[in-house]
Each structure stands twice: as C-alpha cells, then as structure tokens.
Design goal:
The protein has 305 residues and is an alpha/beta fold. 47% of the residues lie in helices and 11% in strands. The protein has one domain (1-305): SGNH hydrolase (Rossmann fold, 3-Layer(aba) Sandwich), CATH 3.40.50. The longest helix is centred in the C-terminal third of the chain and has 19 residues, at 282-300.
Amino acid sequence: MPLKTIAPAFALLALAVPAQGQPQADSASAMGREFPAVNGTTIQCPLPVGRDAETLAAQFETRPRDLDVLSEQAAAFFNSDSEVGAAFRARQAEQFATDWPLRCRYRDANADLLESGVRPRVVFMGDSITEGWVEANPGFFAQNGFVGRGISGQSSPQMLARFWQDVVALDPQAVHIMAGTNDIGGATGPITAREYIGTIASMIDIAQANEIKVILAALPPMSRLLPRPEFDTRPVVPQLNAMLAHLARDKGVVFVDYFTPLRAPDNSFDPANANDGVHPTRAGYAVMEGLAEDAIRRVLDGAAD
C-alpha cells in the first residue's frame, strides 16, 4: 500500500497526525459559518470531510492485517525522507499552533444542534475509536439520541480543552468518556499515569458540576503502538483501566468495561474484533454497543427524557 494511501490510516492508529474526518484547510474545503472572536476578528472553520470509502473499508475489513507490515509502514511514514509524512507533520504543526484542541471540528455542528433545540441524551467524547463508532453504525447514534464528538488522534488533554464546547454547552443528559489510547501513543507528548487520570477526573468534575451524568469507559485493548513495536502496550492498558475503575468508584460514576470482552488471552486486541490491533471493526463495535446501552440505561434510570 503506497504511503499516500496509508497516511490517513495512521491518523487512526494512535499517531499524532490529522485525521480524515477533521477539517482540512485547503482551497477545495467548504467553509462553515462565521463566529465572532473576542479579539475583534471572526472564526470560520473548514467543514469536516468524511473519510473516503477505501479508508473506511480498510478499518472495517474483517481480515486481520499484519502488524509487522503496518509497523514497517509507520516507520517509513515517520522517516525524515517521507514527503507524505513531512506534509502531514507540517499541517499538524500549523493546526496545533492555531487550534490545538481542534475546536473547529464540531463548532458548526454544535451551533446547528443548539439552534435545533434538540437536547442529546448522551454525548460520546473520545478519539478515533469514538469517531469510528459513528462511522461504523450511524443509526446507533441517530436512533438513540446520541451525539458523537470523537476526534482521531486526540489525547485526553485536548478533550479536556474542548469539553465545555463539545459537551457542556450541548446540555446532554449524560456523557460517555473514552480516552487514553493516544496518551499511550504520546500524541501530544508524554504524560504520566497520574496526569492522565487527573485529566479524566477533571472532565468528570466538569460534567457533574453541570448536572451531566457520566459513563466512564475502559480503554479497549491495544495490541501495539505501531511506530514503536518494541514497546509492549499490552500490560499498560489493563493498568490504566484499573485506575479508571477506581476513579469511577471514587466519583460515583458508571464504569463500562470494553477491555475484557474485546481482548485476546495475551491482552492484545482479539483479531475477531479489530484488524489493526487498535480500532474495532463493526464486530467489535457491536460488542461495545450492548455494553454501552446497558450502562446508559443504568445511568439514565429515572432521568427525565
């Protein structure tokens, strides 16, 4: 597979590169509405461009991909000689300099939702695993009053920075928080386990202060960090999940365990549920949906519709 086609896929593999679903600032992009900025200028975001059929098919293909081959491709992508990789990194640097949390991604969609007067039942805050969930089964979201606010490649600090805009301002009954894959991947730099848990705790605190109920999700399995195949991610994920489960008990929120039913015996991602070791296929998301629905029912039991 040529680098020009695998580059968008790496945006979904816990790497810090722009995702296909994110706004792309080029001359062909359709622009959204204008919003007044506090400095007297206006903000106008490129509207998100959906991932192409080839990229979606690659993520949801049921046959597992060779992780050694993907690691070699990742190494080539990040090699200083890669023009495609260099172009992605340049765009990322520009994006980080002007919109580090990527508030642009859902600014127009949020405005449209607020103007509609529709209150979401649940906002799903997350990274590519959440973003891909919407793509895998849009009906799961649309038919249940769920709203997806996942951004590929994002770390938990970026989610915290956009939490008010993408969650609180929408006034949902509940929020589903799933973050951490890109913290392990170092998407916005190294972070300690304590700092990571503190960031998740801050999102929970903000939600609870605004009377939004919380579902805290375990990290799904992670077979490999592709650019660093020598680093074993398999013990890291259950360690962080144990900390998340403790945090959920401490904060009095519902914890939903996606890790256990999706893992293989060695704590990697069962190839029956993911073909790249990180992202669920539709089969994986089907497992997650039943668990999510049960957790949401528990959280919203007795809540007014």
